[in-house]
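Input record (one chain):
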Amino acid sequence: MIFYKKLKPIQAITFDLDDTLYENTSVIVKAERSLMEFMQHQYPATRHVNIGFWRAQQKSILLANPLLKNDMSELRRLSLESGFIELGLSGDELNVATRWCFEHFYFQRSNFTLNKNIHSLLKILGVRLPLVAITNGNVDLQQVGLEQYFSACFKASVKSPMKPDKAMFDAAQAHLNIPHENILHVGDNLPKDIYGALKAGYQAAWYAEDRSMKIRNEKAQILPHVQLSRLTQLLDLI
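The corresponding structure, as predicted from the sequence alone:
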């Protein structure tokens, strides 16, 4: 554990989810592969296109509506719909294909098992302090077994922009009704989690599950209050 700034008393903890409590990149890769297989099995027209086709749909939609970068679920749904229209689907067939494929991906996106040590840690922390989740992603907390530990979960959307925007941090603070400076945010992304938390008046702890934590290699010029080498060190801070 490395301290960069003096910590004030911690009365609540907010957590980023992806790449903080679990490694997320391989989960998304696996979910996208599963979606491609599902589509090719159910809809022959998709057998003639690859994942680049679907990413082009997403890029086109973002160019038309940049705010959708804040809502990964809606962006994916619209990308699927756009792709199926280009492949010739319409009417009920289009609506059903879009819904089924989105639901398939969303299930697979949350189809993984958390390390039992994460469950143990969150259970202990939750007895001592209120916990809130703040995520730019769209993992299903109930499906992965995390819902029970958090009093609230704030997910990015068009109306509540992604971190580092203050919107979700302010919403979490209002929910907790605890001074910003007494809330510790734990996240892996320095430009989004740490900068966003500090900008919102929070304290910040840096922890990344998906990579070696060498702060000199990170794309940010801002320091957290504390750098953790393992999440269980949170117990020492409270």
